[in-house]
């Protein structure tokens, strides 16, 4: 089978021309192919936020959603 070489831009343009059903199929394929990396990143982030809370005297598991949001906002803006 002949090999066709396309630039990223060409691939994107071709995908844009596909019917929605095929775009959805491509999206699912890409999502599934990256799922483990997303899961690993999510677990890493969850571990780090628990550690950051514990280092500042908080228990992440016992915090309310508002407390968690305020904590993250404070850490991001270096208020703690």
How does the major sheet shape up?
Answer: none
Our count of helices gives 3
Please, what is the average pLDDT? 94
Unreliable stretches: none
- Gyration radius over CA: 21 Å
Residues in β-strands, percent: under 5%
Order of helices and strands: HHH
Q: What level of helicity do the residues show? A: over 70%
Number of strands: 0
The structure class reads: mainly alpha
- The span between the termini is 60 Å
Shape: elongated
Task: Give the arrangement of secondary structure elements.
Layout: H1 8-16, H2 20-55, H3 65-76
What structural keywords apply?
single chain, mainly alpha, elongated, 80 residues
Structural description of this entry:
- This protein has helices at 8-16, 20-55, 65-76.
- With 80 residues, the protein is mainly α.
- The model has no long low-confidence stretch (mean pLDDT 94).
- The longest helix has 36 residues, at 20-55.
- It has a domain at 32-80.
- The N and C termini lie far apart (60 Å).
């Amino acid at each position: 089978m002949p090999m066709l070489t396309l630039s990223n831009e060409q691939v994107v343009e071709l995908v844009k021309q596909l019917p929605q059903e095929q775009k959805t199929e491509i999206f699912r394929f890409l999502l599934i192919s990256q799922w483990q990396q997303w899961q690993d990143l999510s677990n890493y982030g969850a571990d780090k936020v628990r550690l950051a809370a514990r280092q500042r005297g908080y228990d992440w598991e016992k915090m309310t959603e508002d407390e968690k949001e305020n904590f993250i906002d404070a850490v991001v803006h270096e208020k703690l």
